[in-house]
């Protein structure tokens, strides 16, 4: 592939594709340069270093993922919204494993706070949970429960970690029902007093 037309957007998109093929942890500037048929140095006009590249892939993937989720939950509330949110999350994690791994990477919090994709993720996630009547600090606790459940299930499923004969999708659906019951019957703490911070990415 010729160097002509190489842009930061093309480099990041190619890195995301490469992540899906070989794993996010295996994405390197050298591997990406080979894909474009250029020397490693040619990429430094578009990304500062490997960490910058991986951060950009994380933001790209985060934006893609939340758009899927937003489309799925539009017009829904309560259990229907939770099931739609969870289904879109699981589908993206299984269909785009490298991109999904990027969304779990540790990123500088100042960069996260400035990211429109991550702010949108927070708004949609917290909005769904507020429909259950939750406020802080319960919102953050509920987000952590959902994130750990979704991520743990998807990671185990992708790795073939469920060996029992029970259908994996059936177990997933039952888990979402259990989460719905837990959210409806949340053991609430006293609400946080004082200024309420703006939306932040799920914790």
Automatic annotation (TrEMBL):
Residues 5-65 form the HTH tetR-type domain. Keywords: DNA-binding, Transcription, Transcription regulation. Pfam families: TetR_C_33, TetR_N. InterPro entries: Homeodomain-like_sf, HTH_TetR, MT1864/Rv1816-like_C, Tet_transcr_reg_TetR-rel_C_sf. Residues 28-47 bind DNA. The keyword Hydrolase does not apply. This is TetR-like C-terminal domain-containing protein.
């Amino acid at each position: 592939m010729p160097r002509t037309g190489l842009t930061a957007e093309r480099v990041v998109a190619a890195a995301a594709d490469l992540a899906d093929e070989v794993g996010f942890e295996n994405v390197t500037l050298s591997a990406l340069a080979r894909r474009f048929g250029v020397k490693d140095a040619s990429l430094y006009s578009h990304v500062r270093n490997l960490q910058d590249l991986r951060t950009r892939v994380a933001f790209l993937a985060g934006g893609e993922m939340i758009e899927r989720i937003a489309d799925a939950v539009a017009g829904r509330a309560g259990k229907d919204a939770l099931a739609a949110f969870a289904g879109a999350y699981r589908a993206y994690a299984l269909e785009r494993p490298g991109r999904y791994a990027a969304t779990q990477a540790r990123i500088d919090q100042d960069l996260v706070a400035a990211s429109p994709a991550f702010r949108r993720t927070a708004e949609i996630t917290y909005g769904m949970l507020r429909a259950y009547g939750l406020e802080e600090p319960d919102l953050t606790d509920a987000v952590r429960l959902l994130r750990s459940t979704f991520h743990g299930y998807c990671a185990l499923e992708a790795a073939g970690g469920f060996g029992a004969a029970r259908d994996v999708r059936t177990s997933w659906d039952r888990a979402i029902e259990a989460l719905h019951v837990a959210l409806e019957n949340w053991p609430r703490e006293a609400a946080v007093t004082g200024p309420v911070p703006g939306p932040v990415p799920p914790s």
